[in-house]
Amino acid sequence: MPITAVPQGVELRKLSAVQKRAVDDLLARQRESSLVENFVTSALPALAFAGVGGAAVLVAYSYLNDLKIPTAKEVAKAVTTAAGEIVSDVVIDVGGGLAKAAGFEDNPTTPEFLPSGTGPLSRCKRWEVDATEILARVQSGKLSNTEKVQAALATKRIIKNMKAEGCDRPSAISVAQWEA
Predict the structure, then answer these.
(1) DSSP assignment string, 113-131
(2) What is the pTM of this model?
(3) Helix 123-140 with 145-164: angle, nearest 10 deg
(4) Each residue's pLDDT tens digit, 35-62
(5) 169 in the same domain as 86
(6) Structural domain of residue 41, as residue ranges?
(7) Is residue 10 part of a domain?
(8) Helix (H) or strand (E) holding 168
(9) pLDDT tens digits for 82-115?
(10) Is residue 127, in this structure, part of any structural domain at all?
(11) CB-based contacts of 111, cutoff 8 Å, min separation 6
């Protein structure tokens, strides 16, 4: 025979089948509401914390995504580009300095008077013709890699001299090249 603890002040009596079902239903509903209350009171803070944490993760992801953190490939490209710019500056500056020290003036390749008798051309116009000829050679697609490097260095030299002489940017030189 099972033993059950009965609280003091509780009256025990025999129940009919209908009364027993009513008590069982009442106890089941109380257990269900108790479970829901326990879940809400214990899980609600956890859900709120998870919501705040999720929002923080979304904000952090959005922030980091807006930063556009470069990939290793992009970093390597930027480093080699910067190194190339430094090397080209050294070649142009040192080469130009050595030429001036030796008594040579940095002049455009295009002469002041063209063989057709056209002239005199201003220095800015002569630099512009030089830039246009280099662009035409590059666009022909027939340059070797070495010739492409030479064309880039020559273009940089032309830009440096045109800026020093107060010339306007010619159409053969892009805005990006001019402002670099």
Answers:
(1) S-TTS--PPPHHHHHHHHH
(2) 0.52
(3) 160
(4) 556 655 665 566 566 666 666 766 776 6
(5) yes
(6) 15-69
(7) no
(8) none
(9) 767 776 776 677 677 666 777 677 788 888 888 8
(10) yes
(11) 119, 121, 126
